[in-house]
Amino acid sequence: MGRYAHILTKREQFHSNIIGQSVTLYRDEVRQRISELTNYFMSHGIADPATAKNQAIVAIGNDVKRQALIMGFSDTFAVIGVVLSIAAVTLILGRRKPNPAAGAGPKKGLVQIIMKVHVPATTATPTPDPDPAWPLRGKITERVSMLRRRCGDFASLIRLLSA
User: pTM above 0.85?
Assistant: First the structure.
């Protein structure tokens, strides 16, 4: 996140400089906008014309800053999009090819971990696990036996889920 904040700051500064070069007192559009804003501020409670003109210049500066910030966010999101695209391509191209010597079995994962848990087919209650290092084994065993009772043929269900 710090890198993206740095990119945002630098791009905001860049766009502020580029826009700021176009917004000068020598341009007719800028002088006209300052005049309009000065009249607006004078009609809304500022009696001094110098203060109203100063407020108008500050308002134009805030507009430039706001626009530069929006453009900086746009650039930052473009960088994030490029990074995510590269990550997606890397994930797609970085998949491991299945090893034909290993067989065409299901992928290793939670399914096979559950299948390796020994559950006696005749008992519905779990037996206490002598291994205190893994206290959840009894609960997992109980869940697996419940699934076997509900699904009938648990192995075919696992094959369907992992295919």
Answer: no
Please state the φ and ψ torsions of residue 49, each to the nearest 5 degrees.
Answer: -65, -35
The identity of residue 7, as a single letter, is I
Q: Which residues contact 57 (CB under 8 A, 6 or more apart)?
A: 34
Given 44, 62, 93, which residue is the final one in a domain? 93
pLDDT digits (tens, 9 = 90+) for 138-148: 666 676 666 66
Of 93, 122, 154, which residue is a domain's last?
93
- In this structure, which long-range contacts are made by residues 2-6, counting pairs with CB atoms below 8 Å and at least 24 apart in sequence? 4/76, 4/79, 4/80
Could you give the number of structural domains in the chain? 2
Is residue 19 within 8 A of residue 64, CB to CB? The reply is yes
Q: What does the buried/exposed string (b/e) look like for 99-128 if buried means 16 or more CB atoms within 10 Å of the residue's CB? A: eeeeeeeeeeeeeeebeeeebeeeeeebee
Residues 123 and 78 in one domain: no
Instruction: Print the domain residue range for 123.
Output: 100-162
Whole-angstrom CA distances from 155 to 56, 111, 158, 163 are 75, 10, 5, 12
